[in-house]
Amino acid sequence: MSRARLSFLHIAPTLVALWAATVTWSSVGADGHDVLINLTISTPGDVNIYKSFQTNEENLKRFNLTAEDMSEGNVHLNSHGEVDEIEVKGMKIPLHLDLRKEIEGLTYSYLTVDKKTWSARVGDFNNVTLDDFKDDPNLVPENMTLDWSLIPAYTPNPANISLKSGVMEASIHFNNDTLLFEYLEGEVKVGKWVPILPYTGLFLRVINPHTRQLTFSKYFSTDYFMDKEFLENIRNLKKGRIAIVASFYDVTGHFETPVRDALEECGSFAAQHLRFRDLWAWVWQVGGATLAEGLVTNQNGIETIPPPLCLSLQIPAVNASERFCEDWPTGGTWEKRKQFCDTYDGYGDLCSCDNPFPTTADTPKMDTWREDIGILLVTGNRPQYLYRLLRQVLLQPGVNKTQIFVSIDGFHEEPVKLVEIFELKYLIHHPVGVGSPRISRHLRFALFKGLKELDTDKFIVLEDDLLLSPDFYSYMQQTSAILDTDSTVYGVSAYAHFSYNHTAKDATRLNRVHSFPAYGWMVRRRFVEETLPKWPPEFVAVDWDYWMGTGLVRRGRELIIPEIPRTVHAGLTGAHVNGYLTKRRFSNKPVSTDPNARVNITGLRKEIYEREILALVNEAELLNITNPYNYTFPRTPGKVYAIFIKMTHEEDDGALKIIADALSVWNQDARDHHYGLWRIPYYDAMMLIIGYPFSKYRKYYKKGYNVIRATSERLDHLSDNFNDESFVYKSHRKSDYINIMGLFDIPKAKGVDQKTGNERSLTNQEFLTTSSQFQNISKLHPVTEMQENLKKQEKETIHIINRNMNESESTIIQDSITSASIQDVTEGMKLGSEIISDGILNSDDSDLGTMGVLGNSSLSETATMKNDTVKLQN
Q1: Are 299 and 847 spatial neighbours (Cβ–Cβ below 8 Å)?
Q2: For the segment 109-145, what is each residue's pLDDT rounded down to a tens digit?
Q3: pLDDT tens digits, one per residue of 88-102
Q4: What are phi and psi of 224, to 5 degrees?
Q5: Crossing angle (nearest 10°) for helices 226-235 and 257-265
Q6: At what angle do helices 712-723 and 654-662 cross, to 10 degrees?
Q7: What's the CA gap between 255 and 228, in Å, rounded?
Q8: pTM for this structure?
């Protein structure tokens, strides 16, 4: 999903002729010729203003300068709209200008949700204060009433579970309750396109056997890293729960080996053997036995479609004395914790009977502690993410729990109760808008309320999908001193977008950049008070972070970022992220691991930092690159290299994207630069990327060297690189079946008659689920040369219709037909009583026919079963 950004920036007034208005010239130049001077003026909005005027050449001779020298000079407006000097050839010539009225006239324009334009000027907010918003209805928190009573226990008797896993349907029923019913109408045919249907993946449901209530419900797609999130969730389930898994269409898209190994350790026999479009169902008691597991294997991967898997079982009655943790204290928040852990799941040691996480303990202060810094946590309805973050925050040395405030977007009982267990300050925001505006308005609410709820001079803002380094709070403590002493810095960020494993080595190094904060940031109270009155209304589509990076907010000030980040973005679901983007943007990022790491604060002082950058630029070897995609970038240890790219203004980022893609770093936009310069450690060398003519370091360009430009061919290459992805859909071989069935020394089993089955058409059914996120569209992946046994077939067009989509949104799939019978697997097979086979011992090691493999607890070392029956039926 693309992010909404500012559309354009207007420079409203005309600036005066600067040089002539501010420098008093002698009469020496009266007889000289007039020459044209073209000045470039950098504004706080990072937009260059180009102005021309004429002066007498004798005036330039006084400074031993030429008109060309003057045109390459740098003029910078400070955050107050004033100019103090012009820098030419290393000389700083006094130049005093008061351009405050001109700066206040800068107009910033943003797209709205209805594709119109909203504009604002700096001067619009001169007389606006926070008191003007005291009656704002969007700042009124929601009220809520929480019920902390325990759910009555069920009469201890057995319960029935039935599951269905299919290519077009998945369902889970517990006694008379439907926990999941998902289906798609239509027909899947095999051929040269592999359809990835909506809701492809796994559905997980968890039951408290004492209350018979659903405690956890989530859908996991086949996107990148979803397998790891699935594993993390089941590892954090409370011991004794009944966990139920049903696959839909396919589960193997990115089901990696480490996750399969871990699931095998949890008791699953099928996880190791799953191939494309296999059908899987698994029921187990967390921390105990596999109760039942079923696997129907697919014949030839992309070329065949398996029959559905139906699994039925009865779970025994439970011992009522095992419902609660006997050794937990009583009274106070422990009673709330007992009710919470009885009602919800996925919280690991929060609900552990043996070693519950302490929610009240204070951590000692570290030697880098300077002051209490308020922590503002922004969350929605992702309570497991929130707990993960709360746990990390409270383990950071020096954190003051009384200076933590949680803002929750919308009334969701689970995260609200979680925060109450921790006895933290919190308020509930009434959601306004959708997408980016909703997120932006929630952050606005959180900052407004944080000013009142927290007593500190500085605030750290954290979103719930972050992981923190062990020195995160220490990093903030150390860098907080900069905000006290340097008015040219507005904030500190814990994250750096251009930091990757090959571009970040030094945990002590910090950078000054013109950018917006991201993934954990700190500002002073007065910056919040200054910024909130300018906040865009709910109909403006710009993302809050891009907006904070504009000159309207920054006013020429810079942001401090680390070379090695102190946070990791670890959320797979959100407004701007999914597993694929996580893989592309976040999977190769370093993070600090040293809890005692120190940072170089002295080197951040503006004059010292500027001298260091100038030294690097002067030392740099200029690279003459013709094609960045066909160039081997040097890595000589200790060497500094410079690359010039075409860049006329901050939004002119095409060439940056090209060179950044070639360097395998962030390539989406021009963030995190210092006056148009990016300092990037590249392996053991240092790479400087300089925007020309945007950067104030443009004067170091040498004629004859190529300036990298964004040609259409290179932009196509960039797009191809970003979207390049190979899919390999693995099918079964004979050895798989032998391993699955354990048939190394077993005689051929009795054959089972198979018949053609016609799957019933499902209509007018209700889809019941509380899953957090779904795939809403079908995806098509081409069958590549890597796929085995692809047959040449005729093409035709068919429809795959999702009941939850409008008819106009149905996906048309280009397909080629092959005849593949859908076979029914015999019903009523008792566990371990018979093995369904189709001549597997007589075939060679090639792809085999459709197999039904009965889930059998005897295949799991930890599993025990009595007389439960698994049914595999059409």
Answers
A1: yes
A2: 999 999 999 999 888 888 899 999 999 999 999 998 9
A3: 777 777 766 666 666
A4: -55, 140
A5: 20
A6: 50
A7: 8
A8: 0.79
